[in-house]
Amino acid sequence: MIDAASPTYPAWLERFVHEAPRMPVPDRAPSLGQGGRRAAVLILFGDGPHGPDVLLTERAATLTKHAGQPAFPGGRIDPEDDGPVAAALREAQEEAGVVPAGVDVLVTLPELYLSHSEHLVTPVAGWWREPSEVAPGHPGEVATVARVPIAELTDPANRLTVRHPSGLRLGPAFRVGGMLVWGFTAGLLTAVITAGGWERPWDTGHVEDLPPDVLSLSFRS
Fold first, then answer.
1. Among 87, 97, 192, 200, which residue is least crowded by beta carbons within 10 Å?
2. Which residues contact 125 (CB under 8 A, 6 or more apart)?
3. Domain 11-218 has CATH 3.40.367.20
4. Over the stretch 62-107, which tens digit does the pLDDT of each residue have?
């Protein structure tokens, strides 16, 4: 749904705002099991020095879950949060220094269910009306904060499919900003690019194994 404040945003976001609430959701859960939690992430669009961009973080290598993985700012919805929008903005401030007052919430996307972690995630899209300086908010959780141009994400040379060395395909990926973006974040980015009408033809047959360093962080016990 569109935020009640009816925010203004650039023309290049119009199609995304219109299409995002109807994005297909591949995996829903009618309810969360015991121990499952709701979470939210912020898809923050801005006009950066290199054109329209989106904010990504890279998780610290010392974390026990999803270590070293690029991600949207976000996390679990706390009892003190007034729903997913408040949680997404709070997490973006804590993780990347984003000032919530400078963000206009555009739309909340359909919930996505992560079966392996039993999280029901609400993506919240925002327009960075007044960009703030960003930096890792907690070195033990966030290693890098980057504004990634949409043009780099849609460049066919930066897109690929990744697989586990066992041969299992893990889904789409992006090589941008010195990061390999894959997993949940890459899947959501792919849907966002499609909804925004920014998709460019790319070689979907380009498949690579996850690098050993990524494997050692992401699949460790």
1. 200
2. 16, 17, 20, 42, 43, 44, 45, 105, 106, 107, 108, 109, 192
3. no
4. 444 555 689 999 999 999 999 999 999 999 999 999 999 999 999 9
